Amino acid sequence: MPKGSEELTNARKEEIINACASLYETISFKDITIRDIGARTSFTRTSIYNYFQTKEEIFLALLEREHEAWIADLKELMGQNSMLSAEEFSDRLARTLEKRGCMLKLMSMNLYDMEGNSRLESLVSFKKTYADALQVISRCLKKFFPAMPEREIQDFLYAFFPFLFGVYPYTSHTEKQLEAMELAHVNYTEYSIYELTRSFIARMLSRSCGGE
Questions:
Q1: Which residue of 20, 51, 127, 197 has the lowest C-beta tally within 10 Å?
Q2: Residue 1 reports pLDDT greater than 70
């Protein structure tokens, strides 16, 4: 790590992560290189290695930042509402996720590569943030559905978080994929992240607490 203030270090990390996020909007994970990311920063490409050892570490930091933003939205949801019905909670929670397309895309398509080619310290940092997301969802359920048994809360978490890993591919398709489904006569209905997650959450709550 280069010498300098903590503020400078954090600012440069953010600049690198922002460059990565910008590229990921239009270029696939496998096609993005450290050189590409460095070309979008205000310092030399080789300086990136002072902060991240691999491109996968940069993406993992991006995924961690996406989870932090989601957690902030979940805490805001809790702070702004004293009571929510199952229908209202399903809507609010799904709304927090429709803003996190980048997070869902990374989780669905690139997580194993990111985790496999990142240093342990980077992976631990991400896992802590992921655990925080689990805890905040648990707190939401306890607040808005106080009669929900602890076992039902755990069952919800163990269904909901694995579900998130598969949402993105069902809501985003390439032209080639769409053409293949048409030629294969696949009966395909397009759904948004919001529509899929809201429906899933509502069904889970209906099973767990009778839709209270």
A1: 127
A2: no
| Dist. CA 104–CA 160, nearest whole Å | 13
Q: What is the CA radius of gyration of the chain?
A: 19
Asked if residues 102 and 62 have their Cβ atoms less than 8 Å apart, the reply is yes
Burial class (CB in 10 A: 0-12, 13-18, 19+), 147: exposed
State the residue for tokens 């579900």.
163
What residue ranges define each of the domains in the chain, with the CATH number in brackets? 1-51 (1.10.10), 56-209 (1.10.357.10)
CA 150/CA 208 separation, integer angstroms: 10
Beta strands in the chain (DSSP E): none
- Distance in angstroms (rounded) separating the CA atoms of residues 140 and 121: 29
